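Catalogue entry: protein
Contents: sequence, C-alpha cells
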Amino acid sequence: MSAERNIIASIVVIVIALVMGLAAPAAADGVALGKAVTAAVAGAASGGTAGIQMIDDSVTSSSGTSITIGNTMRIEQTGSFTVPEDETYAHDVYMWTQSFNVRGTLDGDACVWAQWLTIDGTLTQDLTAFAQDVTINGIVGDDVRVFAQNVYIHGTIRGDALIGAANLVIFDDAVIEGSLLAGAGQVTHRGTVKGDARIAGGELTMSGVIDGNAELFTDGGITLLDGAHVGGDLIYQGPTQIEFGSGIISGTITFKQQDSDDGITAVVDFAGRFKSLMHLFGFIAAIIAGSIIIAVTSDHARKTANIIRTKPLKSVGIGFIAFICMPIIIVLSIVFIVTIPFGFLVLTPAYVIALYVAKFYVALWLGNAILRRGDAIMTRSPVPPMLLGLLGVYIITAIPVIGTLAGVIIIFFGFGALLQRKETGLATAFEPTPVPGDVGLPSAFPGTGTEG
C-alpha cells in the first residue's frame, strides 16, 4: 500500500506541475485579476461600487455587452470597438469584434479576434491579434503577435514582432525596435528592424534595413533594391545564389542551396517529429490518467485484466466485433429521431471512453505477465504492473506501420475483456449452449441381451 500511495502522490505532483506550467503565461493577468477581485469585494463591502461591472458603453461599442474586472481588465464581444482620438482607455482588452480601432491611447494589453484591426494611436502594452487585415500606423509599446491575411506596418513596434500572414508589408516609415520573426507568402520589407530578423516566405522584396543578423528563407527568391542593408551576418536560402553589392551586408554571408525536394522533405520531417512528440505526450497523459483510473477502480481493473489472461481469444474476438458494430449502432440511433439523445449523450461517449481505457487493462495484463505474477493479479496492487505494461504498449505502438496494427489489436483485447464483465451480460457470449440430460451413447443396445 505504501508503494501505491507513493505512486499516487507522484502523480498528484506531476499534475500540479503541469497545471502550473500551463498557467505560467497567464501569471501577470492572474495577479491583476486577483487584485481586481479583492478590490471589488472590498468596495462592495464598504458600500462602494463593486469592481466587477456589466457595462454597455455606447461611446466605444456599437453593440454588445462588456465585462470590466476591477477597472483593469475588459472582456467584450461586440460589433465594433473604437478608442476615440485624444482619449485614454485604461484596460487590458480581450475582444471578439468585427472592427477594432485605436485612435487615442489604449493603456494595457489587447488580445483581439477581428475582421479589421487598426492602430492609429498608441497601444501601450502587447498586441495579440487574429484578423483578416491588420494595420499599424501608430505605436505599439511592447511585443506584437499577429496572425492575419494582410499585415501592413507604418508605425513603431517597441518590442519584438511575431507575424504570420499571407501578405506582409513593412513600409518605409515603419520601425521594429526588437527582433522580427515572420512567415508569409509575400514579404515586402522597406522599413527598419533594429534587432535580428528571421523571415520565411514565398517571395521576399527588401529595400529596408536589418541592424542585427538576418536569416532569410524563400521558395521564389530574394529581390534586393536600393537601400537594403543587413548590419550583421546573413544566412539565406533560395532557388539561386545572389551577388550582393558592396556595403549591403556588413557581416559574413552564408548561402544554403534549396533542392526541389526540400519542401516535401521538410514536411515529412516535421510530420515525423510532430507524431513522435504527440506519442510522447500521449504516453505522459496515459501514465497520469491510467494510474488514477486503475488506482481508483483497482478491483474492476484486476478482474478485467484477468479476463484477458484467461480468455484471450474470446476477448479479441468480442472486441473486434464490437469495434465494428458499435459505430453502426450509434449511427442508427442518431438516424432515428427518438433515440438521437441516447446516441449522442450515452452511446458515443461510452464508446469513446471504452476505447481509451481499453489499453490500460491490456497494460495491466502485460505488466503482470512480465512480472510473472500469474494469479497474484487478483491480490497485488495493479498500478505498478500497469505502468510497466503501459511502457511496453507505447514502445510497441511507436514502431511504424506495425505499431498502428498493434494498437488496434490492443484495443480489441481491452474492449473485448471490458464487454465480458458480468455487468454487460456478455460474460457467456459465444459459449456453447448446454443440452439438458445425458446425451451420451448408451452402454448397451436393445436386443443384445446385455441391457439392464
Summary: DSSP finds eight helices and 25 strands in the chain.
